[in-house]
Amino acid sequence: MRRTRVKVCCIATPEEAATAIAAGADALGLVGEMPSGPGTIDDVMARKIARQVPPPIATFLLTSRTRGSDIVDHVQDIGTSTVQIVNHIDPGEYAAIVPGLPGTRLVQVIHVEDDTAIELVEAYEPHVHAFLLDSGRPKAARAELGGTGRAHDWTISRRIVERSGKPVFLAGGLNHRNVGEAIQTVRPFGVDLCSGVRTDGKLDVIKLHAFMQGVF
C-alpha cells in the first residue's frame, strides 16, 4: 500500500520549511492573504521560501483570490509548483487559470459543511488535478477559508474520495491523536494540517514527529 502523503501548511520561514522537510513532509503550504485564520505570510516571504524548497517537495500557494486572472498573477509572482484555491470560485474562472498556469498543479478546496460539498466536487472535477477537503465556512460573516482547527464529517469526505477520480487531501482539525482514524475512515491521497503541529503559533518539532508516526 502507498503511504498517505503529508502536507504541512502555514510554513512561515525557510527554517520551518527545512524542519518540515526533515520530518518527512511531501508538501509545504504557504498561506497568502486571508480574511481570517492563522499562518499568513506576505508575498515576499512566500517567494523566498518557494525558491529554497528542493524538489521533489511540492510547494502550495494558498490564495483567496477568486478571479482566474488574479489567481494566475499571484502564482506566477510567488513561483510555487501548486496553487490551492481556498474559495469556492465560479468554475468558469478555470478557463483563465488552466491556460495561464500550464505547469502548475491546480488544487481546489472544498469546504465540507454538508452534502452539497459533493455537488461542488462534480462541478470542479473537469478542471483540477486534486481536491482538498477542509472545514471552513466561506459564507460566514467573516469568511473562514481554512485553519479552523475543526474536523468536519469524515463520512462525507469518504464519499467524495470514493466518487472522485482525482487525488483528495483531507484537512481540518487533524493531529497526532486522530490522524490514524482519519486515514482509516476517509482513505485520502494525503493529509494536511497547520495548528495540529504548532504551539503558540510556532512549528512544534515534537508534535510534528508524533503526527508523522501516526501516518500510514
Task: Walk me through the topology.
Elements: E1 5-8, H1 14-23, E2 27-31, H2 43-52, E3 58-63, H3 68-78, E4 82-85, H4 94-100, E5 105-111, H5 116-124, E6 130-134, H6 154-163, E7 168-170, H7 179-186, E8 190-193, E9 198-199, E10 202-203, H8 205-214
Parallel strand pairs: 1-2, 1-8, 2-3, 3-4, 4-5, 5-6, 6-7, 7-8
Antiparallel strand pairs: 9-10
Helix pairs in contact: 3-4
Radius of gyration: 16 Å
Q: Which homologous superfamily in CATH is the superfamily?
A: Aldolase class I
Give the C-level CATH assignment. Alpha Beta
- CATH topology term: TIM Barrel
- Total number of helices: 8
- CATH architecture annotation: Alpha-Beta Barrel
Q: Order of strands in the sheet with the most strands?
A: 1-2-3-4-5-6-7-8
What's the total number of strands?
10
Q: Main beta sheet: strand number and arrangement?
A: 8 strands, parallel, barrel
- What's the pLDDT, averaged over the residues? 97
Unreliable stretches: none
What string gives the helices and strands in order?
A: EHEHEHEHEHEHEHEEEH
The CA-CA distance between the termini, in Å, is: 9 Å
**Relative helix content:** 25-40%
Structural class: alpha/beta
The tally of domains stands at 1
Shape: globular
Fraction in beta strands: 15-25%
